[in-house]
Design goal:
three-stranded parallel β-sheet, 12 strands, elongated, disordered C terminus
């Protein structure tokens, strides 16, 4: 049943233009969730249409407003009251990349259907059932539309003489609906945590937007006079035709949700790697002169540095999760937008990572009874470049200049293969430097150290180089060099080199995916596309 009207629209469009429909845009309510949106795509498929692009009704209306010359500055807030068969009120904010929905509330009993029922009861003389209302539905709907411009009309009724409907009857039927729409507008603005003074305008659209008393009720409740868009019943469909302003063959940049397992792995792998490295660093550090006057501790600074780097990577991988948790409890509207959540999450991740690295330094220095200065230097300085780049990403996200292809969660995920190889490599190096060198185990201990250096070299190449062929070419010499220079003095240098490799990896991602992303491949659009705009249930 749902596919039938879409099929009829497609046939009519093909008959008018003489070409198949290739671009389908369906206007849907902003409050629809994933299940209903998937259902609508299945309906379009059942109707024989290509994959449709779903455009939220208030977003389509704002596109229509811009196309008709309404000036909406970036950062401004709008309210769209869509009054059709029911009512849906939405608060939107215009960002650099388009409009985003901040809050939306709907009421199926606050639209044209409720007016039709009340008017039918008035004409039939008493509250009626659905069967009686259905028998006079067409007559009542025509009378309602006529009474908007005429003081009285004659309404034919089945099985009884016609009756006169006047504007007073329509006013009585419309008044409770208008009041409810006005209340819904107030509630939606409050849900977006805004005030009426923050709004750039209130716009009414939909088949029932021109009903009497509607604009007056909204103005009375909110203190702002709404604007009824010309031809309000067609505003959403016309706006959907221009939504996005891209070619039909263009590949759309969308944020792809990261599966929960992959996201958990991206957070857990560097997190556990950091804990393993700092644990081994503490337990295997060599203390000298414990009973004498002079006291010193030999710490593998490379392993200590890598533990701090892994802690920061784990926190950054959890950046979008931290942002969502903060936004859910923040009273600031800006943190509830996509860019705001990501920006706050990245800043929180950087702060948490730096705090964790500093905590490693304080705990280690207190554990050994040594000055904290050197530990802070080896923990904080190596992570400074990555922290600066992460802050730059937070600025980009806050300004909403660009959303990286694949989404922010994918961008913030550290290279798992490099982390595993580096952790195993440094662990083997530390084992070779601190293990008891019994004569029958010296050879195996030395081999373990060389293998650790080899793995650390592979990890550095994996972080710096992306193409597989270049990785294979560079991995051999770099790994051999790392394996050859494994020693107590070189361990700190190896850890710093890996920190630099991680910073290089982040710099590459910042440049290639955020600041100067490569253009996505475009496919040639088919000749002579035809666009069919369809809006389910929008009229009243």
């Amino acid at each position: 049943m749902a596919a039938s009207p879409l099929r009829r629209v497609a046939v009519e469009a093909e008959r008018v233009v003489g070409q198949p429909v290739r671009d389908v845009r369906v206007v849907v309510p902003a409050g629809w969730g994933p299940r209903r949106r998937t259902w609508m795509r299945q309906v379009a498929h059942r109707a024989g249409l290509p994959q449709p692009r779903l455009v939220e009704a208030p977003v389509a209306v704002t596109e229509y407003l811009l196309a008709t010359g309404v000036r909406v500055p970036v950062g401004a807030f709008l309210v769209v009251c869509d009054v059709g068969a029911g009512a849906e009120v939405t608060v939107l904010r215009r960002g650099p990349a388009g409009f985003e929905v901040l809050a939306t509330l709907a009421d199926a009993a606050a639209g044209g259907t409720a007016v039709d029922h009340a008017l039918a009861d008035a004409l039939l003389g008493a509250p009626t059932g659905e069967g009686q209302r259905a028998s006079v539905a067409d007559s009542v709907r025509v009378a309602k539309e006529a009474l908007v411009i005429h003081p009285a009309v004659t309404v034919p009724l089945p099985d009884r003489p016609p009756v006169i409907a006047n504007s007073a009857m329509l006013d009585e039927a419309v008044r409770p609906v208008a009041v409810r729409v006005a209340q819904l507008t107030q509630e939606t603005v409050a849900a977006a945590e805004l005030t009426v003074g923050d709004l750039a305008g209130v716009y009414c659209v939909g088949g029932s937007a021109q009903l009497p008393h509607l604009a007056a009720a909204i103005a009375e409740h909110t203190g702002t006079a709404p604007v009824v868009v010309p031809e309000p019943g067609l505003a959403a469909a016309r706006g959907a035709a221009n939504a996005g302003g891209v070619d039909t063959g263009a590949v759309e940049r969308v944020e792809v949700p990261v599966p929960p397992v992959r996201r958990a792995a991206a957070i857990a792998v560097p997190g556990f790697a950091s804990l393993a490295l700092i644990w081994q660093c503490l337990l295997t550090a060599e203390q000298h002169g414990t009973l004498g006057v002079y006291y010193s501790v030999s710490v593998n600074w490379g392993e200590f540095t890598m533990a701090a780097v892994m802690a920061l990577l784990a926190c950054l991988a959890a950046g979008t999760v931290l942002g969502s948790l903060i936004a859910a409890r923040s009273p600031t509207p800006g943190t509830r937008t996509e860019g705001g959540r990501v920006s706050v999450g990245i800043l929180a991740a950087v702060s948490l990572g730096a705090a964790t690295a500093g905590l490693y330094a304080v705990v280690t220095s207190q554990y050994f009874g040594m000055p904290v200065g050197p530990y802070l230097q080896w923990a904080l300085w190596p992570i400074a470049p990555v922290s600066v780049m992460a802050v730059a990403m937070a600025v980009v996200a806050a300004r909403q200049w660009r959303v990286p292809h694949g989404g922010w969660s994918t961008l913030l995920a550290a290279p798992t293969g490099s982390i595993v190889a580096a952790t195993l490599g440094m662990g083997l190096i530390q084992y070779s430097l601190t293990a008891d060198r019994w004569p029958d185990r010296v050879l195996w201990i030395d081999i373990a150290g060389r293998v650790g250096g080899f793995l650390l070299g592979v990890a550095v190449v994996m972080a710096v180089v992306t193409p597989l062929m270049f990785r294979l070419i560079l991995a051999a010499p770099v790994s051999v060099i790392f394996a050859a220079i494994v020693s107590r003095r070189a361990a700190g240098m190896l850890g710093v080199i890996y920190a630099i490799a991680v910073a290089t990896w982040w710099a590459t991602r910042l440049w290639s995916r955020v600041l100067r992303p490569a253009p996505l491949a475009r496919t040639a659009p088919p000749a002579g596309p035809v666009r069919a705009d369809m809006s389910p249930g929008g009229g009243g």
